[in-house]
């Protein structure tokens, strides 16, 4: 083999090795690219799965919130109905008391008009109020009077005698 042939063979081998090296580099890049694409695919699938799971959780949460709001509104409606019932009962009680007062006043008026010596035009309410105060004054107070101003012992001693 001559030097020229050896040089040609050497150059051919160099080109071959360089081409092989380029092909290996391209192959490595393609493998890396394929690996990255696989990772991206898995991430996309994972993101879709997480998004679907999150949407289902949000839907369940919305349902639970709607249910709780409905329960709260029903409770408020029930409370308002109870309040209305209480107001109606209070109003009925006031009406009944007013009717009783009117009946009592009429009875006292008829009683005072049938009583001998009753002066016409005298205020019957003040007379009935005086009767009630006198009746209350006659009744003994077991605990003592409401206001004593420090004379509790003296008053009880007077009641005992």
| Helical content class | over 70%
Q: How does the helix and strand content classify structurally?
A: mainly alpha
Count of separate DSSP helical elements: 3
Assembly state (oligomeric): single chain
Give the mean pLDDT. Answer: 80
Shape by Cα distribution: rod-shaped
Low-pLDDT windows of residues: none
Largest sheet composition? none
Distance between the termini: 160 Å
What does this entry look like structurally?
It is a single chain. The protein is mainly α and 161 residues long. The protein has three helices and no strands.
Features of this protein?
161 residues
What's this model, at a glance?
It is built from three helices and no strands. The chain is mainly α and 161 residues long.
Question: How would the blueprint of this fold be written?
Answer:
Layout: H1 3-114, H2 124-138, H3 152-160
